[in-house]
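User: Here's a chain of 87 residues. Predict its fold as tokens.
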Amino acid sequence: MQGVYFRHSTRREAERLGVRGIARNLPDGSVEVIAHGTPETVESLREWLHRGPSGARVAAVEEFELPSTGQLGEDQDGLWTRSFRVE
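Assistant: Prediction complete.
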């Protein structure tokens, strides 16, 4: 995935959707994405991760709900934080 600018493309898509977070390459070649936004925008990003940018071949997307901490999880402000591992 690193060869198709998956991480960079994910950041651009997240910005377009108004989702905050990070995207980073993992040693095994997958990409970890931590996304924070409204339920609708995080869901839109999740759907995009299944497709990825042009030229990407997404084999799997694992989703992990993060615990609520007042800053992550389903926050008091109604926002979601989710972690995704994209292969």
